[in-house]
Amino acid sequence: MKSKIHRVRVTQAELHYVGSISIDENLMIAADISENEKVQVVNINNGERLETYVIKGISGSGDICLNGPAARRVQVGDTVIIISYCLVDKQSAKNHTPLLIFPNENNKLG
Would you list the domain boundaries of the chain? Predict the structure, then answer.
């Protein structure tokens, strides 16, 4: 695991949109997640897991929007965990520390 945005609330789901997840830019920066980076989204409410790529959302908005087919896997208000991964060699893995962020109930950093 490279980084994790732990327990954010889905604010929007747009079925008829090119697939992806839009994430508030502030959260992306805090979690060191880049636009177009592949992420795994884990839905705490229903157990769904999916992979998609990131689109930069409006900075400070708190928006978490699942787009395209992924919109069928969530409901607005669901709590999700967003995880990014990296590849490291075995030696580097011994010292690797993932970046974890814990936004509040409004998807904002404290």
Answer: 3-101
Catalytic residues: 20, 53
Give the burial string for 3-38 (b: 16+ CB within 10 Å, else e).
Answer: bbbebbbbbebeeebebbbbbbbbbbebbebeeebe
Give the pair of three-digit tokens for residue 32. Answer: 């060191």
This prediction's pTM? 0.95
Angstrom CA distances, 73 to 26, 54, 57, 64, stand at 24, 16, 20, 14
Residues whose CB is less than 8 angstroms from the CB of residue 75 and which lie 6 or more positions away in sequence, other chains included:
10, 13, 45
CATH fold label, 3-101: Barwin-like endoglucanases (2.40.40)
The tokens for 85 are: 């991964």
Is residue 48 within 8 Å of 88, Cβ to Cβ?
A: no
Q: What is the pLDDT of residues 47-78, one digit of tens each?
A: 999 999 999 999 999 999 999 999 999 999 99
